[in-house]
Design a protein that fits this description.
Elements lengths: L9 H13 L10 H4 L21 E7 L2 H4 L14 E12 L4 E6 L2 H6 L24 H12 L4 E7 L7 H4 L3 H16 L24 E5 L17 H23 L4 E6 L5 H4 L2 H5 L4 E4 L34 H10 L7 E6 L3 E4 L28 H7 L9 E5 L4 E13 L2 E10 L3 H14 L3 E5 L9 H6 L5
Parallel strand pairs: 1-2, 1-13, 2-4, 4-5, 5-6, 6-7, 7-8, 8-13
Antiparallel strand pairs: 2-3, 9-12, 10-11, 11-12
Protein name: chitinase
Keywords: Carbohydrate metabolism, Chitin degradation, Glycosidase, Hydrolase, Polysaccharide degradation, Signal
InterPro entries: Chitinase_II/V-like_cat, Chitinase_insertion_sf, GH, Glyco_hydro18_cat, Glyco_hydro_18_chit_AS, Glycosyl_Hydrlase_18, TAT_signal
Length: about 475
């Protein structure tokens, strides 16, 4: 048995709160007005116009440019009445070694700003006209602009980097000149909206084509000092250079904001647990940010050794890393607080996907995922099915032989099936299967924690992975009220 959905156990929350108080929450006073708006050491004073100020409470979610291909999830499908910030993934840091020039590029021009939309997939039901020489913005960028028009309080940021596109962050952060040139290039492309031309439709792109779309920058450097999904030119100096890069973004955004009478957001996706301080000078780095999106997930992944929970609300003694008290959401929040990050700059991350482990006899057991394909669109073939896959496509949450279980230590759900069938490339197999995931009950725990402790808000990766009924994002919406 488990508690009614949306009402997490008060005892677990009380224990989590006690842990956080012990980590110094009582001493972590709200940031000053300058700090809350992105000021602080190394940044110019912020002169934001009140009508354009940063939101005081945040429910943000990523929208990936590839969503229009996989699930055919478009901007019109975004529940913009349930969130107030969208991070668009991704913009790409670039570097030309021949000229020593940094840049800030478009990941997928077709999806981002070239694809003409038909009326049935447009936010406002109005089709694009590819023959109109005066239309310069198409694709998701144009649809997000329309979405903002319908929801005036909605903010949209461009997220730079990500796991596979953080390649040149280290390089473009090496010197003051490189940092200045890189930030300037990013603001030209995404804030001023100067997009490359020369594609199709012929009118797509050009100077100012996307002006006014993005309200700020979200930095997603994974990770300073570390060769992660593709970093090059990595060095120990990256940790401090990341702080200097954030300060340069803050300086130039504030300078532009003063000119335009607005406040441009600067946020960052940041890692969980004690390892975060390996990569970042936490308190110094966050001074330049409006808030930090803490990725309190991927504690265990299919590349590990046991079928562990992807995200944990509180610790589980069975977890291979249980000796690290920060290896869970509440522990990570406590670590950030203890390292000088103000509570009103902490945004708690929530995954809208899970991990599937086949040939696994339950939680924290050995597994063998041979045959699963990360590129498959079939839930029974992928190592990381989304919540949408589980409830809308496969329909297996507590059904079709999959028992829903609750980990009382960690406060997370998981599914087990002793005789699950999987259609692999090598043929059909029937094997015991464990699937860990997030659901409205576990998400509601984060919501209550955020509201109880006065944190800034919640962040989700990512929108297309939620159910058709928007069940997960709906469980976060109370953060705004």
């Amino acid at each position: 048995m488990y508690p009614k959905q949306g009402r997490p156990p008060r005892r677990r929350l009380a224990l989590a709160t006690a842990l956080l108080l012990g980590a110094g929450l009582a001493a972590a006073a709200p940031a000053s007005a300058a700090s809350a708006n992105g000021g602080g050491t190394g940044a110019a004073p912020q002169k934001a116009a009140p009508q354009k100020a940063a939101p005081q409470k945040v429910v943000s979610a990523y929208f990936a440019d590839w969503d229009v291909y996989g699930r055919a999830y478009y901007a019109k499908d975004i529940p913009a009445d349930k969130i107030n910030v969208i991070q668009y993934a991704f913009g790409v840091p670039t570097y030309d070694p021949a000229t020593g020039t940094p840049g800030c590029g478009i990941l997928d021009p077709w999806a981002d700003y070239q694809q003409p939309y038909t009326a049935d997939i447009a936010v406002d039901g109005v089709a694009d006209d590819s023959a109109d020489p005066d239309q310069h913005l198409y694709g998701s960028f144009n649809q997000l602009r329309k979405l903002k028009a319908e929801h005036p309080g909605l903010k949209i940021e461009i997220s730079l980097g990500g796991w596979t596109k953080s390649t040149y962050f280290s390089t473009v952060s090496k010197t003051a000149a490189l940092r200045q040139a890189f930030v300037s290039a990013c603001l030209d492309t995404f804030i001023d909206g100067d997009l490359p031309g020369g594609g199709w439709p012929a009118s797509a792109g050009g100077p100012g084509a996307a002006a006014g779309l993005f309200d700020g920058i979200d930095l997603d450097w994974e990770y300073p000092t570390s060769v992660a999904g593709g970093n090059v030119n990595v060095g120990p100096e990256d940790r401090h250079n990341a702080t200097l890069l954030a300060a340069e973004f803050r300086r130039q955004l504030d300078q532009l904001g003063t000119k335009n009478h607005t406040h441009y957001l600067l946020t960052a996706a940041m890692p969980a647990a004690k390892s975060s301080t390996q990569y970042y000078e936490l308190s110094q780095y966050v001074k330049s940010l409006d808030w930090a999106n803490v990725m309190t997930y991927d504690y265990n992944v299919p590349g590990g050794t046991v079928s562990g929970l992807d995200t944990l609300f509180t610790g589980d003694p069975r977890d291979p890393n249980a000796g690290d008290w920060t290896w869970n959401t509440t522990g990570t929040v406590a670590w950030y607080l203890a390292n000088g990050v103000p509570r009103d700059k902490i945004v708690v991350g929530v995954p809208f996907y899970g991990n599937q482990y086949i040939r696994s006899n339950g939680l924290y057991q050995p597994f063998d995922n041979t045959g699963l394909d990360p590129n498959s669109l079939q839930p029974d073939q992928m190592p990381q099915p989304t919540y949408h896959d589980l409830v809308d496509v496969a329909n297996i949450v507590g059904k079709n032989g999959y028992a829903r279980n609750w980990d009382w230590f960690a406060g997370e759900p998981y599914l087990t099936n002793k005789t699950a069938g999987h259609e692999l490339a090598s043929g059909s197999v029937t094997v015991p299967t464990t699937i860990v995931y997030s659901d409205p009950q576990s998400v509601a725990e984060r919501t209550l924690l955020i509201k109880t402790l006065g944190l800034r808000g919640a962040m989700a990766w990512e929108l297309s992975q939620d159910s058709d009924s928007h069940a997960l994002i709906s469980a976060l919406t109370p953060v705004l009220h």
